[in-house]
Amino acid sequence: MEDQEILGLLEKRSEQALGEVERRYGALCLGLARRLLGRAEDAEECVNDAYLRLWNAVPPAKPQSLGAYLCRIVRNLALRRIDRQGAQCRGGESYALALEELEECLASPEAVESQVETAELTAVIQDFLDTLDGENRAVFLGRYWMAFSYAEIAARTGLSQRVVSVRLVRLRKRLRKYLTERGCL
Fold it and tell me: pTM value?
């Protein structure tokens, strides 16, 4: 079932919509939550909470991309949980490591999560992402949005883990320069 059909079911308040959402996006959402939270039980709870948020949000929300909208809900719920539990608790350290890599690009490492959420910085980072070719954008977003490991990014892009690592270093340098040029640092 396509996204527009699922959205139509959500607008009609049909419970079939949640089954279709789970069938189409369940594995993606669960994988994202597991990478961020580390524990399967926490990830499952987070995804279930995301389904409830989606149910309550649509309508009135009409997302252009249901998958991206749902992943954003999952990610935000997982980050809130990490914030409550502490990044080192229960395996959240893989996401904490990804954020540490970005700290060198941001002005205040103590507040990385809150800075990334500010509208101004988000807009500048979006502009930066628009300057990247598809492969570099996939590498950057895979690491810093989806919290994929280097191995997962390599498998998805066909690059070696070493190339992924080098690209991420170069992309972080480019991001830092981009942010500095725009007065964000």
Answer: 0.63
- Non-local (6+) Cβ contacts of 43 within 8 A are 30, 33, 34, 36, 37, 78
Kindly list the domain boundaries of the chain, sorted by start residue: 3-90, 92-181
28-52 confidence digits (pLDDT tens) = 999 999 988 888 999 999 999 999 9
Q: Say which CATH class 92-181 falls into.
A: mainly alpha
104's tokens: 């060198």
The pair of structure tokens assigned to 95 is 């996401």
Structure tokens at 14: 């049909």
CB proximity list for 92: less than 8 A, separation 6 or greater = 36, 37, 38, 82, 85, 86
Would you tell me how many other CB atoms lie within 10 Å of the CB of residue 13?
10
Count other Cβ atoms within 10 Å, centred on residue 23. Answer: 11
Q: Which CATH architecture has domain 3-90?
A: Orthogonal Bundle (1.10)
Residue type at position 166: V
Listed in sequence order, the residues at least 6 apart from 54 whose beta carbon sits closer than 8 Å to its beta carbon are 10, 18, 21, 69, 70, 73
